[in-house]
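ok trying this again, last paste got cut off
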Amino acid sequence: MSFANQIWNRASEMADRTPDDRNRTVDFLRAASIGVVVVGHWLMIAPYVSSGELAHGNLLSFASWTHWITLIVQVMPIFFLVGGYANAVAWRRAREKGTPYGVWLGARMQRLIGPVVPVLAVWFAISLGALALGGSAEWIGRITQAVLVPTWFLAVYVMVGVCVPFTIRAWEKFGFGSVAALAIGAAAIDAIAISHDMRSIGMVNYGFVWLAVHQLGHAWRDGRIAHPLAWSVAGASVLTALVEFGPYPLAMVGVPGQQLGNTSPPTLALLALGVTQMGLVLAAEKPLAHWLAGSRAWTSTVLVNGMIMTLYLWHMTAAVIVFCGAVLLGNLGLQLIPNTADWWLARPIWIACFLVVLIPLVLTFSKFERASTTPRTVSRSRLVTGASLTAAGLGALATHGFAGMTGGVRLIPSLLPFIGTGIIGIGPLGGLLNRGPDTSNRAE
């Protein structure tokens, strides 16, 4: 039996054990949204040779028409929506069983943060080695920022996970009022940040915007989203008004050189897109559920979800490896200017190469994703502290990478994720910082 067949059979066995009450659409949307993000990143990243030197290109800078496509490929709101649904199920189940918050959070952090430790360790070692050999700190910073840019999502989602008991409580007490309060907060932050050109104030919207979408996931779980297409129309109307008459750009992802973006930090426009997408996916929930009742479709979904974070965290590494190989081969294929006809004709070949490199990376590192419990007993306060430090480090690395313009490693942000995961009990420092007995508790 081939290795591929073994993997498929293992996923098929897991699929056969799926409880009847599981919402398969949630799992499918999680897998599909990450898949769209991966392909979107692979399309946007576009280095090319200009005047004999390698330039750091981005398709969005070369083709303004692609800004419209970001309305489709910016699917992170769907992931947070799905997260809100899944977290509501998990926390309520833990609450019913009497599972302590610390045990529940520890298991969630293991699943979420465990897969990021290897990619950080590998690229930290590469950065140190390259700098020791006289490599350009500027390019090391650019490369490591490119491969670590997916970790911005983890930085936010980790903190959302910490807040789940409070978000559930707010939803159960205030209902859609909790969503409205967050939306109003996001609008107020935008007004201050944009009118006074204060991007630092806008960072607060990483909380307001994504928590608002997460709250809508709670609403979905409780069956409170009636007439989903009406929600979608309302969201699209608000988004259109914000872009047409407000200061918000059309692109729903960051465009190099653009003064105001919708993602870093997120804006009210991105929240409106999230509402639009929520209505569309909920309108398609029943047809999707019918399709996912088929064994092949559901097994494929289970297979992808079993390695989803590994795929997400390593897909930019695969792209960088391929581009580095092209440079070593005399800038093979890099003479094509982005958005030209020849560039588009060559793009399927590039994506195929990325995929070929990504597959062995996923097969090698997905084992870190399969660990499902916290390896050590850790107090609630330490879990929250460790998660906060990890999120802070991941956010900084996603923005600037490991190396700085001064020629050295950015030591504090580089070490924060390792210290944070160690406090939680994950990664190379986990065994040193946590010497308590193994826990036998398992969070749902």
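PB: full thing came through this time. The radius of gyration is 22 Å.
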